[in-house]
Structure formats: C-alpha cells, structure tokens
Amino acid sequence: MIKWVPRGVCAPDGFQAGGISCGIKKEGQKDLALVMCEDDICNVAAMFTTNSIVGQPVKISRERVKGGYARAILINSGNANCCTGDEGYKAALNISKKLARLIYDEEKHILLASTGVIGVPFPEKKVLDALPALVENTDTVGHTSAAMAIMTTDTFSKEAAVVVNTPKGKITIGGMAKGAGMIFPHMATMICVLTTDASISTPLLKSALKEAVSISFNRISVDGDMSTNDSVFLLANGRGIHIKSRQSAEYKAFLEGLKAVCLRLAEMIVRDGEGATRFVKITVEGASSQDEAIKVAEKVATSALFKCSVFGGKVIWGRIAAAVGAASKKVDEKKLEIVANRHTVFKRGKTMFTRSKALLIDKDLHVIINLHSGKYSYYMFTCDFSPNYVLINKE
Amino acid sequence: MIKWVPRGVCAPDGFQAGGISCGIKKEGQKDLALVMCEDDICNVAAMFTTNSIVGQPVKISRERVKGGYARAILINSGNANCCTGDEGYKAALNISKKLARLIYDEEKHILLASTGVIGVPFPEKKVLDALPALVENTDTVGHTSAAMAIMTTDTFSKEAAVVVNTPKGKITIGGMAKGAGMIFPHMATMICVLTTDASISTPLLKSALKEAVSISFNRISVDGDMSTNDSVFLLANGRGIHIKSRQSAEYKAFLEGLKAVCLRLAEMIVRDGEGATRFVKITVEGASSQDEAIKVAEKVATSALFKCSVFGGKVIWGRIAAAVGAASKKVDEKKLEIVANRHTVFKRGKTMFTRSKALLIDKDLHVIINLHSGKYSYYMFTCDFSPNYVLINKE
User: Fold this and answer.
1) Looking at the annotation, which residues of A are catalytic?
2) Residues A125, A229: contact at Cβ < 8 Å?
3) Residue A83 and residue B227: Cβ atoms within 8 Å?
4) Are A53 and B395 an interchain contact pair (Cβ–Cβ within 8 Å)?
5) N or C: which end of chain A has fewer CB within 10 A?
6) Which residues of chain A make contact with B82, given a CB cutoff of 8 A?
7) Beta carbons within 10 angstroms of residue A392's beta carbon
8) How far apart are CA A164 and CA A166, in angstroms?
C-alpha cells in the first residue's frame, strides 16, 4: 500500500532543504538549492547523463558517488557550468569546499548539480557569497523552496512523497525534480533528488534506483534532445526500517514506493514540457523483441509530425503508422493495430477513420500500437509539439 | 564541365512530361503528372523508402523496376495511396493498366508514385477519368506542369538540368522533385524523377544513382520523420552518348552531372522545408570513424533545440555541443572545435562567445564541427524549425 504524503524531499525524517536567490537568475528568482541530512552521512546512489560532454558538477559528483556516502546536494539553476573549461571545474571545487566547511563535513560528501545555459562562465562568486545564507535557510520545511530553486523553464515546481508499509513498519520516500525542455530517454536536462529514511546498503540502493529510473525518467521524451547535466540522486539516511535483502518484503515495498515517486515526477516533467498542451502515453505491444518495442515507442514519441497533429487536437494515425514503419524493418502492415483513446483507428491494413472523420482528442492521449508479432511491450510518455516550444527555444 | 540548362525532365532529347488537375486537390490545382519517353523503352534505376510500411505504388514500382526497363512514370499528389488495403492496391493496378493501353505499351513498363495523406481511400475513378487528358497534355514542354503536379506542401516547383561534356560528346540529365515535410535521410516523402539521354546499362545506371543519392537526398533532414512513399527514378533512353564502363571518362562525366542535379534538387527541398526560413549545412570533420561522423551530423541536423535557435537567428553553440556529445560516446570536449560561418565559437573546452555575445546569423548557416580525433568527415543539409512548421502540420 502506497500513501501519498506532503513535504517532498523533507518527508523522510532527518532531511532538510532550502532554496534562495544568489543572483544568477533575474529579479530575485530562487536559483540555489540545498538538500542535506541533518547530521547523518547517507548511503547514496546516483545516475548521470550518458552524453560525452558533461557539466563540471557531473564530473565531480560522478567520482564522489563512487565512495558510497554523501551528506548534502547543492544545485544551482541558471547556469549549467558546462563547457566552461578549467575555470568552471575549479569554481565547482571551491564551492563544494566552502559548503563542506559551513556544514562541518568533508568535501567528498558534497554532491553538486547545475542546470541552465551551457558555455557561459560560471558565476562562482555569487554562489560562494550566498552559501552561508543558504545553509541558514535550510530546514525541515524548505522542500518547496528547494524545488523552486532548481527550476529553469519549468512552469511549476515538482515534488512527490510516499509512505509505504512493510511488515517491520513504514518507509518514507520523498523527491523533487526539474525538467521542461531537452527531455529524452536517459534523463536529459533533468535533475532529481530523492530521499528516504530506509536503512539500505549502497548496492541495493543502486539497484532500486536503476530499476525505478528505467520505468520512469528513461521513458520520457519532450523533444528528443539529450542534456549534458542530467543527474538523479538518491540519499538514504538509515533512520528507519532496515532492508536486509533484495528478496525481503521491505525491499519490495521500498521499490514500489520509489517507482511511484519517480513515475509521478516523470509525468509532471512531461506535463510541463516546454510549450506542452497535451500529455501522451505511447504503449507498444506484441513486438517481436524488447529492442523492437523500445525503438517503435521512441520513434513515435519523437515524431515531430505526430506531435504537431496532437497539438492540433487530432489523431492523424497515418503519421503513427509511418513512424512505426520507420522504426522497425519487420512491421507487417496487415497485422498492425493502432488504438487511440480506446478507438481502433487502424486494423488489417486499413483505417476505420478517414481524414474527414479524424479522431478528435480532448486533453490526454493514450495510443496503443500492437504489432501482433510477439510478446514484448514498452511504454513511453511524451507531449505535443506547439509553436510555443519554438518561441521558448529560439533564444 | 557542367552547364546548367532549362527544361527539367524534358531537357534530354526524347522525353515528354505533363501535369493536370484530376480533382484530388482542391480548386483545380494540378495533382497528376506523367513523365515518359516518346517512343523508346528506357533503362531504369530506382530507389525507394526503407520504411516497412509503404504506399501501394511503391509495392508495384519496386517489383517492376527489377525488370530493368520502363517507359513512363505516373505520379499523383494529394493522396499517398498508403495503408489503403487491397482496394488501394487494385486501384493502382487498374490505373497502370489503363495508362499502358493509352500509350500503347505494356503494364510492366509503367511505374507509379503517390504522395499526400496516408490512409484515405484512393480516388481511383478521378485518376482513371483524367488519364486520356493527361496523355493528351504530355509533350516536350510540359516539365514545369509535371513538377507542379507533384507538389504537396511545397511552395515552389523544383527542377534542374545539366549538360556535361565527354570526349565522345554531350550528355544531358534532367530532373524534378518534391519534398517539404517529413524529410530525413533515406528520402522521406520525397519524390524525384531523373531523365537522361545517355546510353548506359542498368547495372551502371543503378550504381550511379546510388552514389548520387548518397551524397544528396540521403543527407537532407527537415524534421527527422521518414515517409512511406519516397521514390527516386532515373530513366535513360539511350538516344545519346554510350557509356561503356565505370572506368570511362563518359561515366565520370555522367556521374558528375547526375550528382550536380541531385544536389541542386536536394538543396531546393531543404530550402522549401515546411516553415523553413534558413538553410543550414552541418559539416563534421576529424571523426574517428565514418559511422561517428554520420551520427554526429544527423544528431545536430535533427536537434529541435538547435533548429529553434537558428530560427531565432542565433548560433547557440552549447546546443550543438550537447547534440555532439549525445551522438557519440567518444567525443573529447578539449579537442572539440565548432566553427559557425567562419567564426570559431568553441575550442579547447570553452567558448569564444558568451550568450551576451551570441553569434548572429543572417540567412544561411554553415557549421563545421571538428572532433580532431580522426580522418572521417560527413555533411548534411537541414533548415531551421519555426512555429509555422507546427501550424502547417497540426492538421
């Protein structure tokens, strides 16, 4: 049983968060966030972008996470500190050194993330000067301030938290995320911080995070682009229930809760895609291999033509069929079946609708593509493509 | 030496063309085109979409081209005759049968192509009824009528023709094409007819076509989508110079001319991309393999974020770097060099420009991406992404 609760990353006992403005963004908007554990070192698992060009904070966090422990995560928005050369790397190191001193911990326990424009020199001094005030403003109710401070072109802050029951007692899992543009499988320009009070080993924590990300953040696409700075962090402070093994009821409950939080945050990211007006789920069924199912789902979810028609409020299923055929060499037109919001629009090589009777959609769209040639399936979340996307991204 | 000449597909001696309205499109717009050889059977080479869902005419033409000979190519716009079931297939057969009778030839020498909406029942009767008038209106000056009749969302007709000199005399090559949306490598929703008076065997003709397509139509991208109906045809009527072998000076001159015609038509297609306001060439150099060069060029040419910034008139090179890193796991940020319209914008891990000094572009943009890690290179043509693209494609 999963129970949704408030307070985001501060939901599990022992976590604090805060967000302030340090002057990177304009007009006093929050742009610097801290999530930390009050006084425990946490076990940590993390996943990063697979882009071969990465932000400086990714280089640092990727190394530190290997140690298995962390205490705090510092995130700024407005500047990605990417392609900033040695100066940008040194700036990130200086910032983590100062934060470590302020919270009386070691540098290696500080993780970093940045999101924003690429290639602009990093405003090191602004962040350094703001750190004391940020630590001062970090407390058990600062979760929304933190979630707001990591936003870039997001239009709303994204938080979720659950409590799951286990035979031994409750486990709480909290999270916050930012997304918006440039979202594509493998977590493009997506930053997410997850917290839990579970007592769980680093290998188990890693395994749970990998599984939860694979069914959530790795299945969302806004524009097919992939960022340099994606990071997902999961901190476990061990104050609560102990999870002994992968086979235990506690692990299963924890994993279920973690998946729920990640799915909810992933859905929020898609709903808040740049210029998005409609939420779309693409389900592929009956594929002859897992690879075929994934390729078909990804091709449809990133088809600009299909996404434009969804913006227009219509299911132009011919564009879905064209994308399906482009994605896999093995599609049989006579077996292909396409169902949109419970209406069968294509079956046995022809349509049930003609253009004059196009299926209109209200807000959300669920397309089921059945290849009828095997047992593999996959799903993805995406959104429509609107003129606003272009206007947001032309500068 | 290549000399550009007028008259498109009618430029080589012996070819006729025509285009009329048969009522598929609205308001009397031309929608039915014929290109044929006056009274000779031609050697033919052709290439088709690699989509596994294909239009009915593609199924028929693909088979007939295997015979090596063709006399006429009939093309309609406004309806792709794709996903139309057995009725659509039979309609295409009936149409080619009637055309064969009208021009006193065999059905197997008639090739077909269609472009337009997918899945709408094919208006067989309209085409059948219009065939006599079409044949009547096909002559040595009908090339532009034909080029207009194959347009869909194209805003201008696309024709090109050259004369090349060989030691034995002149060879003429003519062509017409349509493109606009859904353009991606492997010739998405692209139809092209090429004609020549060369006397050349089918194997040599195929080889030349493959090479010319690989450096032109397979390197253009408008929106990353791939169509069900792409077809490129090349007819050689043998009235002129004989091309003996691949090593001959005649073959080299012919290939050079064919490439020039294909490149010119490909460039026209990109310039007329749906909603396009700017033409973009992406050149990748110094890649460690041909595959890496192609992947990087394709990723940048299809990056929605990059293309939006080009619409905005700015080179936001960070988006180029992010796309490069996403395309290849082996990119070294410190070696990467990006040059835009002769300005070096990124080198040695950092930029020469900041956002406040973004490189402004006037109309065309040429981006050179040097990975400095090998000897392989590749180029692609694309265009920007405008709000108009979405508005054109929402219905």
Assistant:
1) 189
2) no
3) no
4) no
5) N
6) 318, 321-322
7) 15
8) 7
Chain B CB contacts of A181 below 8 Å:
305
Q: How many domains in chain B? A: 2
Residues of B in contact with A305 (CB under 8 A): 181-182, 223, 225, 393
Q: Is the pLDDT of residue B339 over 60?
A: yes
Distance CA A194, CA A209 (A): 9
Asked if B127 contacts B22 with a C-beta cutoff of 8 angstroms, the reply is yes
0.90 exceeded by the pTM? no
A214 and A361 together in one domain:
no
Catalytic residue status for B189: yes
Q: Of B115, B172, B189, B382, which one is the catalytic site residue? A: B189
ipTM metric: 0.75
Q: Of B304, B321, B386, which is closest to A53 when you measure between CB atoms?
A: B321
Range of the domain at A157: 2-271
Quick check: A117 and B318 CB within 8 A? yes
Select from A213, A247, A271 the last residue of a domain: A271
* Residues A182, B121: C-beta atoms closer than 8 Å: no
Using a CB-CB cut-off of 8 Å, the residues of chain B touching A324 are 53
User: A171: closest CA among A208, A199, A194, A143?
Assistant: A199
Provide, as residue numbers in chain A, all residues whose Cβ is less than 8 Å from the Cβ of B83.
318, 321, 333, 346, 349-351
Task: Mark whether B313 and B335 lie in a shared domain.
Answer: yes
> Does residue B251 sit in the same domain as residue B290?
no
Residue of B87, B314, B331 lying closest to A52 (CB–CB)? B331
Cα–Cα distance, B320 to B303 (Å, whole number): 8
Instruction: Specify whether A266 is located in the same domain as A283.
Output: no
Q: Clarify whether residues B321 and B246 are in a common domain.
A: no
Same domain, A260 and A373: no
Measured between CA atoms, the residue of chain A closest to residue B84 is A350
Whether residue B227 sits in one domain with residue B81 = yes
Searching chain B, which residue's CA lies closest to the CA of residue A352? Answer: B119
| Chain A residue at shortest CA distance from B336 | A53
Segment B77-105, tens digit of pLDDT: 999 999 999 999 999 999 999 999 999 99
Q: Which domain CATH number covers A160?
A: 3.60.70.12
pLDDT (tens digit, 9 = 90+) per residue, B318-338? 889 989 998 998 999 999 999
Q: Do B53 and A223 touch (CB under 8 A)?
A: no
Q: Which residue has the tokens 């295997």?
A: B66
> Shortest CB distance from B393 goes to which of A309, A313, A353?
A309
Q: What is the distance in angstroms between the Cα of A341 and the nearest Cα belonging to chain B?
A: 19
What is the Cα–Cα distance from A317 to A47, expressed in whole angstroms?
A: 36
CATH number at residue A361: 3.10.20.340
Q: Which residues from chain A sit within 8 angstroms of residue B389, using beta carbons?
A: 304, 308, 390
pLDDT classification of A358: cutoffs 50, 70, 90: low
Backbone angles phi, psi at B283, to 5 degrees: -115, 125
What's the burial of B373, exposed, middle or buried (CB within 10 Å: 0-12/13-18/19+)? Answer: middle
Question: Given an 8 Å threshold on Cβ–Cβ distance, is A119 in contact with B351?
Answer: yes
Picking from B271, B299, B330, the residue at the C-terminal end of a domain is B271
CB A278 within 8 A of CB A383: yes
Q: Which residues contact A15 (CB under 8 A, 6 or more apart)?
A: A9, A35, A36, A37, A38, A140, A174, A195, A235, A237
Q: Tell me which residue has tokens 């917290």.
A: A195
Give percent above pLDDT 70 in chain A: 94
